[in-house]
């Protein structure tokens, strides 16, 4: 996605593109809602760890981090958050998480989870200080968040204990449990519910149909967001699965709100006041 | 705010204006975080109702509705949601709330809360069907959400039982408990924590300073969002109150993310992909 | 209650007594469920404090402590627990609370709540170390948990700021906010929902009826628990308020479980295996 | 265990026995805390189901049921409870769950979980009415809770889709997803954390040591609960794993509470007021 925007900026994008990733339903489902479940699933399948009472640090409080934090807190873990963005940090505070620097907690946490979209968030200096048995895994956007390369040095011993699980052992006997060699835990060690696949596939299909059907010149060689109404359409297609019943606006109400009764339900001026940051930069 | 945008659209705005209301910190604090607490406070101070086991319907699942739902669910209420927007409705489903039409639940709920920004959401036809002792209140943006006017008919008896609390009694003896005559519960029957006031006042003060200091022509006669960096600044000023410690980007990481180490932490292209709907239209 | 048991042990009880306090419904409602709400209500009405992001230490993790911790955690506070009983301490861990000594956290918490049933849990040595603006209150069984007497020394200034709220000011200007002068917050600064009153009054009335109707010699001069079946009866009388529907055992199931279809639903041998500690000693 | 008590009652128990199962730590860990995690794990590993938005009915609100309900609610499921015991039913209400008869919800739930300790809780009449794709599993004490035998009739087709997962297909094409053929999900499809094994093994080892070391005649041919102090000892041995720090009573406090500073921390008279029902009969 980043590359698409860079191409666009550089004027090198030769076709119109839809930024499906930033559609609301996609964002929420692939990130917050899906990760809320897959962090638990991924950790259980690889380590059988008990969540209750565990101390966990989650690096990054974007959608992915929010999902991981909420799930682990709900199951009795004590969760710390690291953040670079003051707004996300304040959200973490209000949601009941202590916002710390990694160095404040690295010696006593049981689990370290990265979801920043950044690189070298957990470097060798932190890996060296983790306690024996600490579990380290990545829920972010690439395999760069944990500096796994730094662990390939002669004094450390690697033991491959089962698929996706390595023990890295220090000379003094301390070991850490590295999952998926630092690659994405949710892709490597968990599964994706069919419901989420359906949301994603529907969004992608609608984007392609939109691009195909659009009148000549409607879309230029740029990156576009899925039209809001289509985002709403994807959502509405999935409501019956939950036996959910939408309320319809009366004519009087639609007029009062200055909306079309069939949506989109966000008024036009919202387009231009884009500052709402649903996702913080700290995650992909 | 709506009026400001209408003036702007009509070309009748004679000074630049800052839309402080849609700054992230303001939104989150005045709406989600503050309402999460004030719904409980407002209901307790007026009615002493026990939340555990109560059935509640919350109309509108924007920031205000999300706050009300989360608080009541956490204290053991069973919460139903009504929505017009399929995206907000899907969020409600994933957060564990049944999405219903008001008519499906109006006969058996104990509490009705409006947070839609809409008008006549709870009309006389619903008030007639509520059960005896049902509490009705409004957390939305104006006093139009509950059609209080419809209750001023000869066959209904009003009893003012204490400040902000009226009993409206039907001929058969059924009574409903109307709070603040349908005006905002959080303003009428609850208090605003000084922390929230501080966030709001800081945001407003910074907006004024920005407008005052801006070079000639920087702002036209239009409505502007608070520059993102200032939003972040407001947040960072309030972090020490929580003993929260921000992580700083290394030079290498800032380069990797293509960000200034001091923020803003959301890259520029996010401005143009405005579809993130943090607040749904259903609320103010 | 303690006195009743002491009298009984000393053979000085001259009438049979019912220990209504330890009936299950009374325990749960007056303690866990009621305190879960009244801690929030009591703090809001006296101080308007925002719960989100606040650091709180709760002394004692019995029913009252569990209720306070659950409510504050749900509203975004970061909660620490102190305990003397390892079983309650382990429960606190599994519920996601850090178990600490008061001295570990006293310097940086925003709110201190006692619910131990013990005396001098918060002594002057802790009061001296609290940070400026710290709120101190008691949800336990008497006014001895906070050593308020120790605050009546010449160098400290007391300011009565409003009913139930005193500022105690140190020579260096630090002040703490003492609620209800250390008496019970839930009785002094909050209200009791009618639902809870109904549970309690029903239990007491049934106990009196049982004692009055009992055949000569059924009850000796001792302290008795409310017969289990009556406890269940109190509960069943309150289920319709929640539109709750009990399932009835089939004949075959009752036989399989060796139970009477009308209860009591706990088999007789459970009477003798009393070790289940629903309430820890740490609270009244 | 039931058999032990029956033998004891019949005078046929030929050695003393320790009821380790009803020790507090064992109860809480093997039941509430462990099931809170294993219900999620067992469902994910077998079906990859998404929990968010799912409607679930949990039969039985004892420790196991409470664990299942809490976990699923936390992850966004809408949970209904069935109960035979009015006290447990009232607890379910106060914890925010609708208490229903199975017949009220069986047609529209997505998942059915039994944790009653009872037999034929989900009989063929309910299996017939489930919707297509409904998942059925058992977390209770034996394989009798779901009437699996009733599904072995000629008109139903069984498809074994993977280990522990069967599809049972009705003539009209409706299928239900039966896990572990109705045996215990937590034993068949999930794992037990080493922490829980440690609690259980420690408790059993201490019970054996106690029986072995006891003076002649201390234990008769009966079933005994683990002495309370030992239960506390097991808990205290596991606190360091959570970096939990117990508070010690001062001499003055121990005297005030009439307790030994080293425990047991529950006063003796609590033994005789056994009515606290931590576990309801509805589960094993």
Automatic annotation (TrEMBL), chains A, B, C, D:
Pfam families: AdoHcyase (PF05221), AdoHcyase_NAD (PF00670). Residues 31-192 form the S-adenosyl-L-homocysteine hydrolase NAD binding domain. GO terms for biological process: one-carbon metabolic process; S-adenosylmethionine cycle. The keyword RNA-binding does not apply. The keyword NAD applies. Keywords: NAD, One-carbon metabolism. Its cofactor is NAD(+). SUPFAM superfamilies: Formate/glycerate dehydrogenase catalytic domain-like, NAD(P)-binding Rossmann-fold domains. One of its GO terms (molecular function) is adenosylhomocysteinase activity. GO terms for cellular component: cytosol. It catalyses: S-adenosyl-L-homocysteine + H2O = L-homocysteine + adenosine. Belongs to the adenosylhomocysteinase family. Catalyzes the hydrolysis of S-adenosyl-L-homocysteine to form adenosine and homocysteine. Binds copper ions. This is S-adenosyl-L-homocysteine hydrolase NAD binding domain-containing protein. It comes from Denticeps clupeoides.
């Amino acid at each position: 996605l980043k590359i698409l925007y860079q191409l666009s900026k550089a004027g090198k994008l030769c076709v119109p593109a839809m930024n499906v990733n930033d559609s609301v339903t996609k964002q929420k489902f692939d990130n917050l809602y899906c990760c809320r479940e897959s962090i638990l699933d991924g950790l259980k399948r690889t380590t059988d760890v008990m969540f209750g009472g565990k101390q966990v640090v989650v690096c990054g409080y974007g959608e992915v981090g929010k999902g991981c934090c909420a799930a682990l807190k709900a199951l009795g873990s004590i969760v710390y958050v690291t953040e670079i963005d003051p707004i996300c940090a304040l959200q973490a505070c209000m949601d009941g998480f202590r916002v710390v620097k990694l160095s404040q907690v690295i010696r006593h946490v049981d689990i370290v989870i990265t979801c920043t979209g950044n690189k070298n968030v957990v470097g060798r200096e932190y890996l060296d200080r983790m306690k024996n048995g600490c579990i380290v895994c990545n829920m972010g956007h690439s395999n760069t968040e944990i500096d796994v390369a730094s662990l390939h040095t002669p004094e450390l011993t690697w033991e491959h204990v089962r698929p996706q699980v390595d023990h890295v052992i220090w000379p003094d006997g301390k070991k850490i449990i590295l999952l998926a060699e630092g690659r994405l835990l949710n892709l490597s060690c968990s599964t994706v519910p069919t419901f989420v696949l359906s949301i994603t596939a529907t969004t992608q299909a609608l984007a392609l149909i939109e691009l195909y059907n659009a009148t000549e010149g409607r879309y230029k060689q740029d990156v576009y967001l899925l039209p809001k109404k289509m985002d709403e359409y994807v959502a509405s297609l999935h409501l019956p699965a939950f036996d959910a019943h939408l309320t319809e606006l009366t004519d009087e109400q639609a007029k009062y709100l200055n909306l079309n009764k069939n949506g989109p339900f966000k008024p036009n001026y919202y387009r231009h006041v884009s500052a709402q940051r649903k996702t913080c930069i700290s995650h992909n």
